[in-house]
Amino acid sequence: MRHLKYAMGFAALGAVLSLDATAQTEPDEIAAARSVEGVRTFHADYFEQYNPITAFDMVSRVPGFEIDNGENRRGFGGTAGNILVNGDRPSSKDDVSEQLKRIPAGSVDLIELISGSSANVDIRGQTQIVNVILRDDIEGGSPTTWVFELRDIQYSERPGWTVQLTKTFALGDTADLTLDFQTPNLRGRSESFEEVRAADGTLLNTREVFGQPNQIGWRGSGVLNWKPTETDTVNFNARYQLNTDTQNIGVIVEDPSGNFLAATAGSVEWPTKTDLEIGGDWEHRFSDTLSAKLIGLASFNMNEKNEIYETYLSTGLSNIQTIDETVDRGERVARGFVSWQPADRHSLDFGLEGAFNYRDITLDIANDSGAGPVPVMLSVADTRVEEVRLEPFITHVWNMTESVTLESGFVFEVSRITQTGDEEKERDFSYPKPRLVGTWQASEDDQIRLSVERDIAQLDFGQFATSLNVVDSFSVVGNPDLEPEKTWKYRA
């Protein structure tokens, strides 16, 4: 009898070491208020009814708002989500929801919900944006926040847990340092049933597939915010993650009558799985209407994966297959731009982004049918892909009226992709990417938005190399001739 489907989760949450009580905000200040510029403000006291532990808990409770982590793309230009911190986008490729979880609730002063009608914030194609404004008057920093979460993942019947510690230190009057430490330990299990049919619909066989992933590791991060002068702001962030993941896989194949045909038992180990990201930015304000900002980021990722699969037939053990894969990838990004507000209703950004990305893949496969391991030769199994890209860009936001906003932008992408190893190739690409977005705040409760843009999808470097699917018994040969998808997108 199959186990009943259920899901149970609870969290023991705690916080607070040494923080003096602050005066309560008046009720009329706690309530959200909408200004003529389409900004709705929520003071920190508004969220006390939800007992928030982190900024993520607070933003998740903003009425009518859903967090968007942005696109998973290389560089900064195409990855913008819908969260700002102190009016700026974090200089990190980590999901913005994860970054919010590393900000203690006690460090948040207020949260602004901004509709797409403000010329002095970086909307960048979003309908709504949340701006998390942090307190700057906490002596000694924030209290230590600790979170212990215990979960029973649905269907898995295997408990997992996470421990998180977060602390902000005040480094004088103009700087603060936030440190975060997490130890995720998640143990899941999946089970699925599949039918394999011929083209005419005839049932050929059935398969029962089991999966049991174990995600075990730890992650540490730090964020330094420094204001050396009245016109300069410096931010620095670093994150390191180490995992020792494993996964067990099982497949049982039967004919339409339920007779055993074959089975596969496999295990996957990641002896090395590390992820390091270092980033920072510097902004200088020349005046209230003119500023410049430089952003830099470097990421390093190393994955070593060892797989072993035993195949059984009705006669016994038939084959042992081993797969060893190493993936070394990274990214370097530099972005500089100038923000200028020539008039009250106009905002202009222009700048240049440069990026270097690489992915180095090595794949070794061997089969042992009883006479010893025999290597399997696959094309494009060992290869390195590199990309160098430049993107000059310009964006103009025009508040035509208090309720109508027009955002126009233009990016010109120039890139070179080079592949070496089993396949040698070099290609150059260039694409113009215009964008036009119109927003009308018809009323306090209604917003109409029209947009058109030229989107150039980014190539998946993993598709340049050969990959293997053991469960379905097929391989996908790496394609060095891939070109990005080009699409005109219209939205209303």
Mind explaining what this structure looks like?
This protein is 3% helix and 61% strand. It has helices spanning 27-30, 55-59, 96-100; strands at 8-15, 33-34, 39-43, 83-85, 108-115, 128-134, 145-152, 159-170, 175-187, 190-197, 203-229, 232-243, 246-254, 260-287, 290-313, 316-343, 346-368, 374-376, 382-399, 404-421, 425-440, 448-456, 467-469, 474-476, 486-491. The protein contains three helices and 25 strands. The chain starts with 7 loop residues before the first strand and ends with a strand. It is an all-beta fold.
Keywords:
492 residues, mainly beta, 3 helices, 61% strand, globular, disordered N terminus
Task: Outline the fold blueprint.
Elements (H helix, E strand, L loop, with lengths): L7 E8 L11 H4 L2 E2 L4 E5 L11 H5 L23 E3 L10 H5 L7 E8 L12 E7 L10 E8 L6 E12 L4 E13 L2 E8 L5 E27 L2 E12 L2 E9 L5 E28 L2 E24 L2 E28 L2 E23 L5 E3 L5 E18 L4 E18 L3 E16 L7 E9 L10 E3 L4 E3 L9 E6 L1
Parallel strand pairs: 4-6
Antiparallel strand pairs: 1-7, 2-3, 3-5, 5-6, 7-8, 8-9, 9-11, 10-11, 11-12, 11-13, 12-14, 13-14, 14-15, 15-16, 16-17, 17-18, 17-19, 19-20, 20-21, 21-22, 22-25, 23-24
| Spans of at least 5 consecutive residues with low confidence | 1-36
Number of strands: 25
Q: Major β-sheet, in short?
A: 18 strands, antiparallel
Tally of alpha and pi helices: 3
**How do the SSEs run, as a string of H and E?**
EHEEHEHEEEEEEEEEEEEEEEEEEEEE
* N/C terminus separation: 49 Å
* Proportion of residues in helical segments: under 10%
Shape: globular
Please give the radius of gyration in angstroms. 26 Å
Q: If you average the pLDDT, what whole number results?
A: 83
Strand content: over 45%
- Which structural class do you get from the secondary structure elements? mainly beta
